[in-house]
């Protein structure tokens, strides 16, 4: 007996942001991307992507960080939904409603999160029974961080970041994120990294085994001492005040601090939930950060919250 997929009128998917615990940037490849070795962690700052059947494609944005996000077909979430429709031969459009809480152009992969959410939500809405590898293939074609945001947790990324394997991680990690008022464009940070390293012989990137051992042991202090980001100098070169933010957070007692991805968000690892509140208050009260968020990682990737008739 063949089962008939149930078509659902509305699906909501919650998708986390990411922080790179390690981001090793190798040489620039012929296709313009850089070869990476990165350790991603999904953290509990979420966007929500809701999809419904509609007579035509559309998107609506809401949430605290929606400013500056395109409300048209150039939005990554719409592009992802349309790529999946093309791939699966679906010709029924959807309306997307994206609630943005992840900082925009902040190095936390907010756009990629929305794309991951749209893929998972639409696959369910359209009743597609795609193998995970197929969905990840579509995700990888749309953006390097998107496959990770489907799976979440803590993972090692290679290639341009799109090949992900889970990393054994014990314990929960408490993070404080210092947001910037001004975003940084990812391509410009990579270009600055190339400029700063022009005279350096850049070797193939390798993940740090000591960092991976710290994660496996649930050793917060060990992890804090190994946080590393090859894009950090480039992000600070473009936004020099990030150096001061890092110094301030460490001065206020963070175990470790790092520019998140291509920045300008700065991520601080702290001992526990109480320390996270203390640091968030200190950063905000001192005027060091325009805005502050707390989150715990690792958390699962894109997760269906509700799939229901309305
Ligand atoms: P990454 O960490 O993956 O490099 P980021 O967090 O620095 O990315 P995003 O928030 O993903 O940056 O946004 C980068 C740009 O992408 C934005 O300035 C915006 O113009 C565009 N964009 C397209 N779709 C979205 C979306 N759904 N959410 C946020 N930005 C989007």
From TrEMBL:
Q: What are its E.C. numbers?
A: 2.7.1.148
The record's annotation in InterPro entries points to: GHMP_kinase_C_dom, GHMP_kinase_C_sf, GHMP_kinase_N_dom, IspE, Ribosomal_Su5_D2-typ_SF, Ribsml_uS5_D2-typ_fold_subgr
Q: Which residues form the GHMP kinase N-terminal domain?
A: 75-153
GHMP kinase C-terminal domain: from which residue to which, for each copy?
Answer: 212-286
> Which EC class is this protein assigned?
transferase
Under which pathway is this protein filed? Isoprenoid biosynthesis; isopentenyl diphosphate biosynthesis via DXP pathway; isopentenyl diphosphate from 1-deoxy-D-xylulose 5-phosphate: step 3/6
Annotated ATP binding sites: 103-113
Reactions performed catalytically:
4-CDP-2-C-methyl-D-erythritol + ATP = 4-CDP-2-C-methyl-D-erythritol 2-phosphate + ADP + H(+)
Q: Which UniProt keywords apply?
A: ATP-binding, Isoprene biosynthesis, Kinase, Nucleotide-binding, Transferase
UniProt-listed SUPFAM superfamilies:
GHMP Kinase, C-terminal domain, Ribosomal protein S5 domain 2-like
Which residues carry out catalysis? 18, 145
Give the Gene Ontology MF terms in alphabetical order: kinase activity
Q: Which family does it belong to?
A: Belongs to the GHMP kinase family. IspE subfamily.
Please give the function described in this protein's UniProt entry.
Catalyzes the phosphorylation of the position 2 hydroxy group of 4-diphosphocytidyl-2C-methyl-D-erythritol.
Q: What is this protein called?
A: 4-diphosphocytidyl-2-C-methyl-D-erythritol kinase
Q: Which organism is it from?
A: Nostocoides vanveenii
Gene responsible for this protein: ispE
